[in-house]
Amino acid sequence: MRPTLRLLQAIPSSSAVAYRPHTLGFIGLGRMGSEMAYNLFSRTLVESGGSTRFTVCDARQEVAERFVRKFADQFPGAKVDVLSTPAEVAAVSGTLITMLPSSPHVRSAYTEDDGIVPALMKLSPESAKSTLCIDSTTLDVEAARQVAAHVAKTGAIMVDAPVSGGVAGAKAGTLSFLVGGTNTAFELATPILAHMGGRIIYCGSSGAGLVAKICNNLVLGVQQIVVAESMLLGQKLGLDPQVLAAVINSSTGACWACSVNNPVPGAVPEKSPPCERDYEGGFATTLMLKDMGLAKDIADSVGTPLPLGQTAEQIYADVVREDPELADRDFSSVYRYLRLASNLTSR
Ligand code: NAD
After folding, report:
1. Active-site positions, per UniProt (predicted)?
2. Would residue 70 show up in a list of annotated catalytic residues for this protein?
């Protein structure tokens, strides 16, 4: 049960700038962002005795409004401002968290006319300098470094802090944050990230968090496919999926893709993977396809071969192209795609 707290009444928008240092802004309230913002806001409220205020923004206004309604249900009297653009959020929020799909969205939210950087440039140098930007999106390393350089020119501080742990980890507040930026930026970001995650790992300078994240997802993307292949093969050969999952999970094949995100309904009854909800929620196949592309691009740029990564990227591309319904479903739905393919073959 989440705690409840009576909040301070809404502060008139004309005074909003004066409250900027005590305002947290969250941009991008999708599957991950909505859970992260909920934990961040509720825990900050408790910690600050209600003296912090919040702003949110999503490209789909109804998504931001739904978040605020849910938050207000749990925190009666709460007032979280829904703002229309990232610039409006930056104008009144001293700390900003962005959780967007990928590179174009981050570029747009930070550098376009109604973005964060132009808004920071309109602030006093002191206000800009005291601003902390945390981007938790998984995006291209070079794009992230360019955006961070634009932010740095305003005097503000930025870290890349992509996450591992999925929607379940976001909801439970147990995400791992992989952080890139200066040591000072890392120290400033840590107490904020601690409200949303269990592990905060400093990976190095700007972009290093993303390098770590992309390498991790390269492993995950390949593993989820091979778990699907194995679960399918075992069943075809007469094994009960629950028995097979239990064997793998206690053997050398154990991995998160099998033990938590198992793609076969009923295989891990103690967990609640997306396959139990027809692959709704979780990590969209299109986002995994994006991450495999990020791995391929960065590997090409340094001349590292990715034979499995490239094959996995092709398989996710085939899933999205041949079964568009699975594009927005959890990437473990690659199992459903392979199962259909195997049925066709056996006909
Ligand atoms: P999502 O598509 O559910 O949410 C993204 C949100 O950003 C949407 O609500 C969208 O409307 C909003 N948005 C897009 N452009 C915007 C803009 N310019 N301004 C404001 N809002 C904008 O995606 P998600 O699953 O929450 O993933 C977010 C990021 O986290 C991605 O980079 C993804 O790769 C990464 N990630 C996701 C998971 C997961 O399990 N879903 C796990 C780890 C990392």
Report:
1. 213
2. no
